Amino acid sequence: MKPNLLDLDAERLVGFFADIGEKPFRAKQLLHWMHQFGEADFSKMSDLAKPLREKLGASAVIEAPQVVSDATAADGTRKWLIDVGNRNAVETVFIPEANRGTLCVSSQAGCALDCKFCSTGKQGFNRNLSTAEIIGQLWIANRALARTAGGTTAQHAAKAPAAASRGERVVSNVVMMGMGEPLANFDNVVAAMNLMLDDDAYGLSRRRVTLSTSGIVPAIDRLRDECPVALAVSLHAPNDALRDMLVPINRKYPLEQLLAACRRYLDKAPRDFVTFEYVMLEGVNDGAEQARQLIALVREVPCKFNLIPFNAFTNSGFKRSSREAIRRFAETLISAGLVVTTRKTRGDDIDAACGQLAGRVEDRTRRTRRIVEIQSC
Ligand code: SAH
Ligand code: SF4
Fold first, then answer.
1. What is the pTM for the complete model shown?
2. Is 111 an annotated catalytic residue?
3. Which one of 104, 111, 209, 234 would you pick to mutate in the ligand 1 pocket, going by the greatest count of ligand atoms within 8 A of its CB?
4. Atom of ligand 2 nearest to the CA of 111
5. Is 279 touching ligand 1 by the criterion CB < 6 Å?
6. Do residues 200 and 10 lie in contact, with contact meaning Cβ atoms separated by under 8 Å?
7. From ligand 2's centre to the CA of 230, what distance in Å?
8. How far is CA 365 from the centre of its chain?
9. Does residue 180's CB lie within 6 angstroms of at least one atom of ligand 2?
10. How far apart are CA 297 and CA 292, in angstroms?
């Protein structure tokens, strides 16, 4: 089978060119064509000599995943359903705001971690996405958004540096907060993030790429060493008893270990804080005593809190905390000196809000086996 060049970050692309007897600078040219011009056709790569274009055509492919559907919500949030084969699909969501455009990217078809309030977790796990399928989501979004804005991708890319300096780039931020646990698909996610950060590809700063994890502690340390981007941690509970229930991976890596990993991460993090995500579940984790426990818990970790109003889905068994309960909870944290934001729910009319991403996944593995595999990673 021919390699898919969308699977390769700069280092691997240099390796590919070495294998076919070509110089390393070809990797840069290919990165520009694929990621900055959105070009998948070797024959259109005009600064490559014809024999090289033919050689590439014979030895490799450039294949982004296929879009199954494309929907835009009343608030401008746009969601693509992306085919990842074997009757599986994942979701990618673009959230436009006044000063930035954020793309929420999926890392797995389904998720094995089984958090009790998450619809992705409810549907089980099918497989890890490849690097091409992860970076392909940014590729697809950039092309589609450029088309919507008028003009070809190439024209758009040519305008991008000027637009970027005015803060107008379409996708300015990426959050690994779609379907799946990114740290359970470490190598493919890191290769995709390398491309997001690479000036020859998407050129995003480390501060503008955020990885959200439910807390796989050894992988947080690896991320710090190999690709330190902004870190968000899904905390959701102020003590182990409750977190064991809501976020089962906590039984393997309890809070004390998780918070120590967050402190270690900050040595190399591009931002000087960790973001703690906290889904607001009525009567479960939103009380005054829980807010007080949370304040004590994070005392030694420079952090910001992002409260996420729970997004309901069929048979979830949870309710969203009331607006008043969320306000009170936030005030308690703020009066202890913490920085707190409450996430606006975006795109819920097209099921694009956090935790509503279900895609389409065939759960092929038995849940007990999955948990064992995750715990040993
Ligand atoms: N697996 C990673 C990233 C994907 S989930 C993680 O768990 O961090 C992105 C965020 O959405 C996480 O904070 C997750 O806990 C939250 N989330 C999951 N289900 C939700 C729901 N139904 N309502 C609101 N937020 C949810
Ligand atoms: Fe997986 Fe994150 Fe959902 Fe938990 S919240 S089941 S880790 S996607």
1. 0.91
2. no
3. 234
4. 1
5. yes
6. yes
7. 18
8. 23
9. yes
10. 9
Rounded CA-CA distance 317/303 in Å is 30
Residue among 45, 46, 44, 43 nearest 54 (CA): 43
Report the distance separating Cα 265 and Cα 274, nearest Å.
9
Say if ligand 1 is within 6 A of residue 308 CB: yes
Q: For residues 348 and 207, give the distance between their C-alpha atoms in angstroms, rounded to a whole number.
A: 27
Residue 354: active-site member? yes
Compute mean pLDDT per 10 residues along the chain, 377 residues long, and list them. 97 97 96 95 96 97 95 92 90 93 96 95 93 97 81 48 46 96 98 98 97 98 98 98 98 98 96 97 98 98 97 92 97 98 78 62 46 29
pLDDT at position 376, please? 26
How many other CB atoms are found less than 10 A from the CB of residue 202? 23
Directed axis angle between helix 10-19 and helix 186-197, to 10°? 100
Q: Give the position, in ligand 2's atom list, of the atom nearest the Cα of 122.
A: 6
Q: Which position among 104, 115, 227, 354 bears the catalytic label? A: 354
* Residue listed under structure tokens 């975006």: 346
Residue nearest to atom 20 of ligand 1 (CA): 355
Spacing, Cα 259 to ligand 2 middle (Å): 18
Give the CB-side neighbour count of residue 128, counting CA atoms within 13 A.
16
Query: Which two three-digit tokens encode residue 253?
Result: 């890596």
360-363: long-range contacts, CB 8 A cutoff, minimum separation 24:
360/81, 360/87, 360/88, 360/89, 361/88, 361/89, 361/109, 361/110, 361/123, 361/124, 361/125, 361/126, 362/86, 362/87, 362/88, 362/126, 363/110, 363/123, 363/124, 363/125, 363/126
Bridge partners of 175, per DSSP, are: 104, 210
Nearest protein CA to atom 4 of ligand 2, as residue: 115
CA of 354 to the centre of ligand 1 (A): 6
Cα–ligand 1 centroid distance for 203 (angstroms) = 26
Distance from first CA to last CA of the chain, Å, rounded? 29
Atom of ligand 2 nearest to the CA of 114: 6
Centre of ligand 2 from the C-alpha of residue 120, in Å: 6
**Residue found under tokens 């024999």:** 51
Residue 362 confidence (pLDDT):
60
